[in-house]
Records
---
Amino acid sequence: MWDTLILNPMVNALLFIYNLLGPQLGLAGAFGLAIIIFTILIRLITLPLTVKQQQSTQRMQELQQDKRFLKLQEKHKGNRQKLQEEQMKLYRELGINPFSGCLPTLIQFPIIFGLYGAVIRALAHAPVQLLELSKHIYNSIPSTIIPLDSRFLWMDLGQPERLPLSFLSGVPFLAQGIPVLAIIVVITTYLQTKLTTPPSPGGQGAQMTQVMNVYMPLFLGYFAYSLASGLALYFLVSNLLGIAQAAVLKRMRPKGPTLAKVVSEKALPKG
């Protein structure tokens, strides 16, 4: 099931794009470009979810200043469980999902593991690895493109990324070079989570959001440091696109009713 739904489509999407850019157009670093284009496609597919998340984030920000929310904070400040229950009632009444900030992050996990498996298999060179790769390739992919060229800029996309610098050769932890992508991935992941997750209103949603804001940058940074640099390249491009999306959507207020209008409409007597 995993191979059919996740791994095989990713392997063949990367090979298809690589074939267009490399063997057909003759571009250098075709597999790195294939990963970048693949990342853009993933971002486009998940764009509706991103827009919905950003709209929910804006409404959560408005809620922090709403009188009803502030009254609940004051009324139940000594009873955390009751406060959480009343907050959840208010969220449901206003159509706000406090967990929406975490959902896009959770969706990344099958993409991350699937892409890692796809990159490692696509860059097969040894006979056993090539035999394993052949089990995942569709008939429409020409076998003549294999083995792939794994070079992109200074990186071997099948190996962890390091930028070699001669003056660091004597430094124990940096002798192989500086993990540039891993550092940038940590920074951009943190910026993206800050831009795309709602403020913490208290309760379980706030706790999960805080955990994601702290651990997700370190988690992806560790992956970028220790695993294939093709995966780190995906993280970096995805983060940059996510930051750009958040900036654009922040300027574009949703066409739907604002939270203040929703509250006022619900306060009106029916009929």
Note: The radius of gyration is 23 Å.
---
Amino acid sequence: MAMITKQQYVEYLLATPVNYTCTNLADHLDDVSHDAVSDYLRRERHTARTLWELAQPLITDSPDAYLILDDSVQDKRYSRKMDLVKRQYSGTERGLVRGIGVVNLVHSTGTEDDFYPVDYRISAPDADGKTKHDHFREMLIAAVADKQLQAQTILFDTWYASADNLKLVHRLGRTFYTTVKKNRRVSLTQEDGSIGLEDIDWTEERLTHGVIVRLHKVPFPVRLFTLVATHGDSDWVITNDRDSAVTAQVAHDANDVRWDVEERHRGLKHLTGSAKCQCRTGRSQRNHLACCYHAWLSVNVKALELGKTLYQVRTDLFRDYVRAELRNPRICAI
């Protein structure tokens, strides 16, 4: 019985429209059994290091580039005996779900469709004792010290806007843009004490250039902006860039880049079946996710090459099949 390779598994993830199981893959490869596929996932040890080796020659790195840190949850709500699965908050579901949490690091020049995953960490606190914030800090330090990425602007959402994370980015000499919760309190001056964000007098000058404030446990001042989101609510954005040239438009553009990466993570789930592996062991799930990132990177490259979206590239795979069936249907309407 034949063995399966990583290339075959990654190309299967890109080719299958719905079913991402070991059984389905075995059914579509000659002389490969279900056991051969499941053994492959249990046996191999794919890591995020391989993703970096694949992505490194593809990225256009410079001080003007961005590093975006974000997390996603691989929904496993119906799994009861699967390693790595735990109850956690999902932004997609806006509530708690059972799933596998992943913290992602993505590099971008900020231009449309230029987003490359360069690192990720699976959240497994029961196994390694690390929180998502620990993974955030480890990946950021590795990006600067080991990968030597030049990108100066670091983007992340409210969840990661803790004092420790802000201090780390600042200490690394990088600029952050992140949202904060509307109930966070700030100080305009030492004498006035802390006030709520909505209690600030938002003059025209402050709406354009922001306002310099102090955050609890953060030893340096930050610039605060209030931005009106497309849904009408306000986003509160802070940055440690105190250059007077920084305006609300700059903060808005950075916030848009961060939102774009969330759409990319939806693509990871929808186009590679990252949440669809049914294997129970943690090693199998880790290897499946590693192959999904490889597949995601591959479809990103193809989309840029063709000047299409990720979803258009995937849909094109099935066009010839649909056309052939319409010309000569194997199942005719009665």
Note: The first strand starts at residue 66 and ends at 75.
---
Amino acid sequence: MAAFERILVTGGAGFVGHHLCVALAEAYPHAGRALLLRPGERGGHEGFEAAAADLVDEAAIDQLIARLRPDLIVHLAGQSSIGQALHASEMTWRVNFHGTFALGAATARHCPAAVFLFVSSASVYGASFRDGVLSEEAPPRPVDAYSRSKVAAESALSDLLAPKGRLVVARPVNHSGPGQRNRSFALASFAAQIAAIETGRAEPRLKVGDLSKARDFLDVRDVVDAYMRLIDKARDLPQPVSTFNVASGTAHRLEALLERLRGRAKAQFAIEVDPALLRPESDIASVACDATRLTEATGWRPRHEIDDMLQALLDDARAAEAQAATATS
């Protein structure tokens, strides 16, 4: 395991960040660990110092990096929902691009030799997915504000951080699993609705968007394993900037995944298409990526089957529903 003395994580209070902070605390128990939180924000791992600063406040971020001088930065923070980004383009650009630029610039000034893991998105390939399963050699052809802001952030970091440090860009496909309770994400929404229907707190109608879309899905635990392996190997990578897909290579139709969840449900329900959940015509029909480069560099392979992920997601949704029912009783 690579040695790091000072670790900074952004977005650590979120879904993926929670899992990653647990893994980092276990892997680097003697390192100083800080978690960037917005002023007034709560959450995060108890083994991390809370560092309050708004990502889009360049002066505050510069002061924070100058104080901490981390040798590992894991940048997860950003507008993570493509659906939400479609209706908030300005904030998406402010957070995903301007916030990332501020963090990268401060890193270049105060700790240029740091390892910087930037969590981008497979969505940057955009229209290129019409050509099939994509490797990292495929050209980014973003189709919305979310993916355009991610491509721009990747480019900015490459210019800011090379050649002194090590920039690792991860492009994960969709991922879900225990702890994802944001209904802006399809599988989390399905699981939460099913759990509410089972308890009788919701009518037996499950609202969905376009179920014909096919997506490459990973369990969040496999995604975190990929990030940890990349962190460990970062300093040994031959190039100052390296990009890796994090993916299974297989696209699953949302309709089929919903049917698998329905098979685990304890109550019957109808399925209703909600026009508000439908994406624009630019949405890509099928998304899948090749992660051969990641496997060759780190030995990573997914360990959780799609059914494992769905069961864990549903179990977590049921636990959350039980807590909600207790709180209102």
Note: The chain has two domains: 6-175+217-246, 181-215+252-284+305-328.
---
Amino acid sequence: MKITIRNIIQPQKIILKFFEKIIFYYNLKKYNQNIFEKKQNNFFASLKLNRKKGIENLNSFLDTKNKMSSEHEVLFSSISINSNKLINNILEIGTYDGCNALLLSKLFPNSKIDTIDLPEDEPDFINSYSRKNIIKKFIKERNRKLSKKKNIKFSELNSLKLLNHKKKYDLIWIDGCHGYPIVCIDIINSLNLINHKGIIICDDIYLNYNHFNSDKMYHSIASYETLNELQKNNLIKYKLIYKRLDPKNNCIANKRKYIAIVKKI
């Protein structure tokens, strides 16, 4: 009954979703993943990284249950096998379930990994990623994963407090809140914490996201706009790679997500 009433009140949304489905299936049908694989390989090469060898290396750490989640894992793997990239200290902003920190610890066994996430009693932590009703179970499982490796140090820390942080890093992964103002502050703080020739990597870059539909936690154009302003003022250089290459996630151009690789000038 509620659905019927909503449909009557807002019929334009039904029409819009219908046309979105048509556009999606049209683009899905004509999508050629091989083209994007080639582009992605070239993007990696421009960063002096070998994507194919990165995938081979990554597969040696992943079992059949844990498949690659996105191209950031291939990127980390490619960096880890590059003899010209010396990575001693890594900072991860946004621990989530601990899986990424665990992978980093395997890819960079001789590195020290600091991973931070919001304190468990903060509303943004409790109410995000559908964990409100399973919070204790989520934390227990996360902490279990993080305890597997001695080179991981987890801290409950709001990333804004990195403003007073002194330690320097060779690799920083930004995957906390994606919207204004948090991600902008995370990027600026990371620029202050990165070593000379260090690499900052930002997850979930949207190029065409509408401000009206943006939110604090998940979807925003904030990272892209911040990086553009910094590059325009000759403070950084950055390049983008595709976050995912599968047809479902990459066939609609204005909905594609990217990963930014940032270097401080």
Note: The radius of gyration is 20 Å.
